[in-house]
Amino acid sequence: MKTEKQKQGFTVMEIFIVILILGIIAAIVVPKFSQASSESRLEELVSDLQMVRSQIELYKIQHKDLLPGQFAQGGSVDEHNFKVALTVKGSDGMGPYLKKLPKNYYVPNAKRRDSITFVNDPKANPTGKEGTGWWFNAATGDFRANDSLFHAAY
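Request: output the structure for the sequence above.
Response:
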């Protein structure tokens, strides 16, 4: 016959069963959270693209069809002038259009997440291999994600 003191603890088998049940629940729940997180990141990327594109279009309307950072129609654009045109109030009183350029969190290199590859060729398309977060074509005004071909399609 067991004494009152001996009946208070759990047996190894009871603890094992509880751990097994918790493991099964975790195996079911964790992938759902992971998928939700992945979907949220993609939604954020698409939202950032829409925001930047709309601000580029607004800039273009207010600056006689010039793109941000462009000094003559058809001219090239560089990263510094592009970012300044979008994020700093201009001498004409217009802007800023963005507080800062958003980061593309799909880019593994944290320092390159808000960097941009610039091209000036109407036939060019991003490859996703340039190592920058974004891609901008000064010939077409096309702004895209640049971390993969899949995201460049957005």
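The first strand starts at residue 116 and ends at 119.
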